[in-house]
Design brief:
Length: 154
């Protein structure tokens, strides 16, 4: 059984995440979308909202589970018996950042990190840009899955 986790904040889920998840599930038997809880971070969307966006977007995909976790990602992997961490790479900045984390995680555990390159046309999308567009009343429907729009009506 190849079980992987895709960790992140998902504040909110974007079409960039969606693309990596859709392609990631072809590589694994189970993919846990793991929302990390960081008490020091300020989020735009509550944990419940972020979970709902993802659950609804993948409600017809039995290989996907949405979970939340606290603490080190590698500890959570061991807890649920996941051998792989899936991450997306958009640009050289992501690569440098992710490289350091993947090396550290490999030092701390046997868990392998698997990287997928963003599909062309999705690399500019980030949750922080989406939050900025939302804050300023812009049209963010081209940046996120429909479930984010449907569940974010005032
Ligand atoms: P984090 O707080 O860990 O950065 P994010 O929710 O921003 O959490 O991102 C989770 C994962 O999704 C990371 O691996 C990130 O590189 C990837 N990701 C985010 N946006 C995109 C995108 N547009 N294309 C591909 N991967 C992306």
């Amino acid at each position: 059984m190849r079980r992987a986790i895709f960790p992140g904040s998902f504040d909110p889920l974007t079409l960039g995440h969606y693309d990596i998840i859709q392609r990631g599930i072809t590589l694994f038997d189970e993919l846990y979308i793991a929302i990390g809880i960081n008490a020091d971070k300020k989020y735009m969307f509550s944990l419940e909202e972020r979970k709902k966006f993802i659950e609804e977007a993948f409600k017809n995909e039995p290989k996907i589970k949405v979970v939340t976790y606290k603490g080190l990602t590698v500890d959570f992997c061991k807890e649920i018996n996941a051998g792989f961490i899936l991450r997306g790479l958009r640009n050289p900045g992501d690569f440098e950042f992710e490289k350091a984390i993947a090396h550290t995680n490999r030092h701390l555990s046997e868990i392998e990190t698997v990287f997928l390159l963003t599909s062309s046309g999705k690399s500019y999308i980030s949750s922080s840009i989406v939050r900025d567009v939302i804050r300023n009343g812009g049209n963010y429907s081209v940046l996120v899955p429909d479930t984010v729009i449907a569940n974010n009506k005032p």
